[in-house]
C-alpha cells in the first residue's frame, strides 16, 4: 500500500544542512499496524510529514497505492489527503464549532459527498467505536476518551487507506493512553485499518505488529511481534532502545 523508497530529506542551505532522513526505505502492507520509534530529532515527524506531503522529500520516492505523491498537483494533493489519509494527532484536532458528527464527517462533506451518505457513514463508524450517543454534542461537551474515539472515527470514515498518528498518546495519562491504543488495535484487527504510528514510547509501540527504529534519520532496526504477547514484545522493544545508544531516558 505504501512504499518508501530510499528517501532523503535535508533542511537548511549549503552552509548549514541538517540531514533529517537518510536513505530510508520500507513498505507498509494493507492491514499492518506499524510503529516508528526513535529518539527526539531522529526524523519521525519529518517522515510522517513527507508521507502526508505536508513536506517535500529531497530525494527518493513515496508511492501510496502505486501513486507517486510527488507527481500530484496542489489540488490533487488536497484531495489525496482527504480521501486516502486519516490523521490522529496528539491533541486530536477536533473543531470546537462543529458537532462531533460534523467533525467526523468533515472530509466527506468537503468531498461533496451527498449529506445522506455522509450521515450513514458517520453513524456506521460511530457505532463501531461506541460513540453514537455523543454525535450531536460539541467537543467541549464530551470526555477525553470520547474525543479520542471521535478522532479515530474521523480518521477512517471516508475509507481512508492509511491512518497516520503522530504521538497520539503524547498528551494522555496512562489509562487514557491504554484506551486509545486498544481502540487503534481494534481498528486494525477488526476493521482492517492500516496504521502507521510515530511514537517515542515503548509501551505504545508494543501495540503495533512491527516496529521500525530510526536513528539519526536512518532505519536502525526492525522488530516483528509475530505470535508473541504484547508484554514480551514490549521488553524486546526496550532492549533495542538500549542498543540504540543507551540513551534510554531520551526515548522512553
Ligand atoms: N523545519 C525544519 N528546519 C530545519 N530543521 C528541521 C526542521 N524540522 C526538523 N528539523 C530537524 O530535522 C531533524 C529531525 O526532526 P524531527 O522533527 O523529524 O524529529 P522527531 O524524531 O520527530 O523528534 P521528536 O521526538 O522530538 O518529535 C532534527 O534534527 C530537527 O532539528
Ligand atoms: Mg516529532
Care to describe what's here?
The protein has 8 helices and 10 strands. By secondary structure, it is α/β, with parallel strands linked by helices. The protein has a single domain (about 1-250), classed as P-loop containing nucleotide triphosphate hydrolases (Rossmann fold, 3-Layer(aba) Sandwich), CATH 3.40.50. A 6-stranded mixed sheet has the order 6-7-8-3-9-10, sandwiched between helices. Helix 3 packs across helix 4 (about 115-130), helix 3 packs parallel to helix 5 and helix 5 (about 145-155) packs parallel to helix 6. The two termini are about 30 Å apart. Bound molecules: adenosine-5'-triphosphate and magnesium ion. Adenosine-5'-triphosphate (ATP) binds near residues 12, 44 and 200. Belongs to the ABC transporter superfamily. This is ABC transporter ATP-binding protein. Keywords: ATP-binding, Nucleotide-binding, Transport. GO terms for molecular function: ATP binding; ATP hydrolysis activity; transmembrane transporter activity.
Amino acid at each position: 500500500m505504501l512504499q518508501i523508497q530510499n528517501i532523503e530529506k535535508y533542511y537548511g542551505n549549503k552552509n548549514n544542512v541538517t540531514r533529517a532522513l537518510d536513505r530510508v526505505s520500507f513498505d507498509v502492507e494493507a492491514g499492518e499496524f506499524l510503529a516508528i520509534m526513535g529518539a527526539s530529532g531522529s526524523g519521525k515527524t519529518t517522515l510522517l510529514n513527507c508521507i502526508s506531503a505536508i513536506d517535500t522529500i529531497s530525494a527518493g520516492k513515496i508511492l501510496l497505492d502505486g501513486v507517486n505523491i510527488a507527481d500530484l498537483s496542489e489540488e490533487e494533493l488536497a484531495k489525496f489527503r482527504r480521501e486516502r489519509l486519516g490523521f490522529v494527532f496528539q491533541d486530536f484536532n477536533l473543531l470546537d464549532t462543529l458537532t462531533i458528527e460534523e467533525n467526523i464527517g468533515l472530509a466527506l462533506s468537503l468531498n461533496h459527498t451527498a449529506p445522506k451518505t455522509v450521515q450513514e457513514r458517520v453513524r456506521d463508524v460511530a457505532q463501531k467505536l461506541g460513540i453514537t450517543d455523543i454525535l450531536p454534542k460539541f467537543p467541549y461537551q464530551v470526555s477525553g476518551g470520547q474525543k479520542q474515539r471521535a478522532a479515530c472515527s474521523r480518521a477512517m470514515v471516508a475509507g481512508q487507506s492509511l491512518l497516520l498518528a503522530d504521538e497520539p498518546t503524547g498528551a494522555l495519562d496512562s489509562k487514557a493512553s491504554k484506551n486509545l491504543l486498544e481502540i487503534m488495535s481494534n481498528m486494525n484487527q477488526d476493521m482492517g485499518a492500516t496504521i502507521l504510528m510515530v511514537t517515542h514510547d515503548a509501551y505504545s509501540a508494543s501495540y503495533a505488529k512491527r516496529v521500525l527504529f530510526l536513528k539519526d534519520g536512518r532505519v536502525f532496526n526492525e522488530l516483528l511481534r509475530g505470535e508473541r504477547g504484547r508484554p514480551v514484545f514490549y521488553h524486546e522493544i526496550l532492549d533495542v532502545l538500549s542498543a540504540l545508544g543507551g540513551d534510554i531516558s531520551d526515548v522512553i
